[in-house]
Amino acid sequence: MDKGSSTTLIHSGEGRFSHVESLTTPIFETTTFVFESADAVRRYNEGGSGRFLYSRYENPTVMSAEAKIAAADGAERALLFGSGMAASSTLLMGLLGAGDEVVCSAAVYGGTFHLLTDLLSRFGIVTRLVTVDDLACPDTVITDRTRILWFESPNNPHLRCVDVRRVANACRSRGVTSVIDNTFASPINQRPLEMGIDLSMQSASKYLNGHSDVTAGVVSGRNALMERVELARRKLGGILDPQAAYALGRALKTLPLRVARHNSNGMAVATALEGHPRITRVYYPGLPSHPDYAIAKEQMSGFGGMICLDVEGGEAGACRTFDRLKIIKRAVSLGGAESVCSLPFLTSQWGHSDEQLAAAGVTKGMMRVSIGLEDPDDLIADLKQALE
Ligand SMILES: Cc1ncc(COP(=O)(O)O)c(C=O)c1O
Question: How far apart are CA 241 and CA 234, in angstroms?
């Protein structure tokens, strides 16, 4: 050892394998990247050098997963975040300023609702809530102050669907940025950017990862808008960690296989429970009885694994059924291999007043079930015994 032992141990072995072509993208577990000269740093600053500076800005493992999602979405670019809410808040803060108006479907994920109405409202961003039915005539909800129109389709929790092309066209012609939360569909079942939507946001904690073990979010779209989201991500610092990006990139390889099974399981469970004497209504966009079946069939290539059951007896009926489930777990979230059930009035719509619940079309008898990858007959039997 011609150097001290600390110096030797810190620097030996590093950087020796940068030329190796591994089949899978390794976890670049580093906060910072090495440059050979001031000139290389200058070229990085000027852009397009293909180099990396700092993992809060960009990281190869994260970029690898981003490239997969961009390809699945048909987007020029996708950006990953540490959660779906980090993706949503960065997108909104990157594109909006004080005085701007967001038109938002009242029936959105509760976190999105509270972000807009409790937090961004403090910075002068005004949110106007509209119903899913209002979105059937999107021209009538856009005003001169509207900068973003935000909606979900299928939405949370009763799977209402919006005519995505119609919203996209209305926004385009009025210079409004259209944003869809495509979490429930995933790009396997619905490709909103191809229908003219400007930005697609997803909680990657759900179907994209699909194993209930990574919290992440993603925004995708064309370069001009994504550049503004990227600048906001650098400042707000919500980029995904490389470890989590590795797990997500690995899971994305089986997304089409998993979603196909979610689709067939969802259809099997919804069909088996429709008409059950203790269920007032089954909401599943693949059932002809669903109010938006026609538009779902037109714009989706599969109907997904989310179903919503309105149980007889309201709150008491739903709570009793929920407590008796054996295989399906009582847990929030969705899109994983394990089926989970939640009561929207206690979770995603918790804190909503009765008027807000009514505006979102949510009842206290609703059970939201994320149908997983188990054997469908076991899931049907579990729900039926819980309903007895
Ligand atoms: C439809 C939808 N959008 C966004 C989110 C927020 O995502 P995350 O929990 O990854 O922050 C969720 C979370 O449940 C969701 O269901």
Answer: 14
Residues 84 and 181: their CA atoms lie apart, in Å, by 10
Q: Whose CA is nearest to atom 16 of ligand 1?
A: 109
Phi and psi torsions of 358, nearest 5°:
-65, -40
Please give the single-letter amino acid code of residue 60. Answer: P
Enter the pTM of the model.
0.96
Mean pLDDT of the chain: 96
- Range list of H helices, the chain: 5-11, 38-46, 60-73, 84-95, 110-114, 164-174, 186-189, 223-236, 242-252, 255-273, 293-299, 314-323, 354-360, 376-387
Q: Among 69, 80, 85, which is best to mutate for testing ligand 1, by the most ligand atoms less than 8 A from CB?
A: 85
Longest dimension (CA), the chain: 82
23: its two tokens:
């089949």
Please answer whether residues 212 and 337 qualify as being in contact, where contact means their C-beta atoms are separated by less than 8 angstroms. Answer: yes
Give the distance, in angstroms, between the CA of residue 197 and the centroid of all CA atoms in the same chain: 15
Lowest-confidence region among 60-69, 71-80, 295-304, 343-352: 343-352
DSSP annotation of 37 reads -
CB 56 within 8 A of CB 239: yes
Looking at residue 110, its pLDDT comes to: 86
**Which residues contact ligand 1 via a Cβ below 6 A?**
83-85, 109, 111, 152, 156, 181, 183, 203, 205, 215, 217, 333
Query: DSSP for 322-353?
Result: HHT-SSSEE-S--SSSS-EEE-GGGTTTTT--
d(CA 90, CA 99): 18
pLDDT band at 157; cut points 50, 70, 90: confident
Q: What is the pLDDT of residues 237-254, one digit of tens each?
A: 999 999 999 999 999 999
Spatial CA neighbour of 268 closest among 255, 251, 286: 286
CA 116 to chain CA centroid, nearest Å: 17
Strand order in the sheet with 177-181: 77-81, 217-221, 199-203, 177-181, 146-152, 101-105, 126-130
